[in-house]
Amino acid sequence: MAVEEWKVIWKGWVMDFDNNTIFIFDVNGVLIDSNEANARAMAAVFTDDPQLQERISKYYLTLSGIDRGAKIRDIQEHLIGRPFTENEFELRWEGFKKLSKKTMLGAPLGQGAKEVLGKLRDAGCTLVALSNTPSDELGDILAGHGLDQYFDVIRGGGNWPKAESLLRLLEEFQFKPEDCFFLADGKGDLKAARAAGVPFGGIDPGTGEFDQESGIGGPYRNLAEWGRETGLLH
User: Could you tell me which residues are beta bridge partners of residue 23?
Assistant: First the structure.
């Protein structure tokens, strides 16, 4: 059966692998296995102290699916324990911007990323990359991994919630929420999907991020596992 003819009754949704479906992909932790590398990069912009770096790295990994500005503020509040001095937030932001681009370019692709994107592209689906990574960095990172060629739309984020990014996307392109499917790895992403009414599939390599959640697809360890369950990959 040709891929464009596939229709899967999956987790209560009818999923058409054809040009009526918009697949929205988170980038960090889904398309690129970069969460741990980004955690170390964030720690490095706050301190040279190895013990504090370890604490920041571990804490960063609990802040999944929220925007970069919120992560910097949370770390400052909970681990540094004092207000920002003048221009300190901006210094942290710019420092992480430089380091995270390097770490994401050097990180491996998520398992099954190119295979899934290729199958969906061949089927004529609309593919969107939606990330909290700022747009200028995001485009370079996706191009560096050879992923930019698969996407119809690439949208970065910044100092605002993922829910706002997703709602802006739907409004800009007049996408109907029921025609979309969002694959991401954080509870902040799930919150965004629920706010927008978009069906959601969780990607979790084993952290238990979605263990207490219902009404979602998965969780799946990676895109390859999702692709096999839906019949997209064999």
Answer: 127, 181
147-171 tens-digit pLDDT? 999 999 999 987 788 999 999 999 9
How many residues make up the chain in this entry? 234
Q: Which two tokens stand for residue 10?
A: 């999956």
Q: What is the pLDDT of residues 7-33, one digit of tens each?
A: 444 444 455 555 568 999 999 999 999
Rounded CA separation 184/131 (Å): 10
Strand partners, 184: 202
CB 117, CB 14: distance < 8 Å: no
Cα(58)–Cα(65) distance, integer angstroms = 15
Could you tell me which of 52, 42, 40 has the C-alpha nearest to residue 80?
52
11 vs 101: CA distance, rounded Å: 36
pLDDT digits (tens, 9 = 90+) for 192-232: 999 999 999 999 998 888 988 989 999 999 999 999 998 89
Cα separation, 99 vs 97, whole angstroms: 6
182 touches 154 (CB < 8 A): no
Distance between CA 133 and CA 201 in Å, rounded? 20
- Residue 12 has a CB neighbour count (10 Å cut-off) of 8
* Cα dihedral 190, 177, 110, 12 sign: positive
Residue pointed to by tokens 């706002």 = 164
Tell me the backbone φ, ψ of residue 155, rounded to 5 degrees. -130, 120
Count of C-beta atoms within a 10 Å radius of residue 155: 18
What is the pTM for the complete model shown?
0.85
